[in-house]
C-alpha cells in the first residue's frame, strides 16, 4: 500500500466516523421529541455494552488451576467494589486493571 493510498483510507475512515457522529444531530435537530425507540436504546445500550465487555474479559477464564480463575475473580471484585465505593468508572477500571496486572505478573506466574 502506497503512502497516498494510506492517506485516502484514513480520509475515508475520518469521513465515515464524522458522518456517523453527526447523523443524530442533523436527523433529530428538527424534532421536538426524540422517538421512543431511540430513548429506549439510550437507556438499554450502556448496560448491554457493559455486559458484553465483562463477558469478553472473562472469556479466557479456566478452572483447571488457581491461576486460571483467581486473578480474574479478584480483579472483578476489586473493580465492582471500587465502583460501589466511589462511583467513579475510571477509578474502578484503573484499580481493577492494576490489581489484575500485579496478580498475573507478580503473584501467579
TrEMBL record:
Family matches, as Pfam families: AzlD (PF05437)
Record-linked InterPro entries: Brnchd-chn_aa_trnsp_AzlD (IPR008407)
Spans traversing the lipid bilayer: 6-29, 41-62, 68-85, 90-108
Name of this chain's protein: Putative branched-chain amino acid transport protein AzlD
UniProt keyword terms in alphabetical order: Membrane, Transmembrane, Transmembrane helix
Organism annotation: Aedoeadaptatus coxii
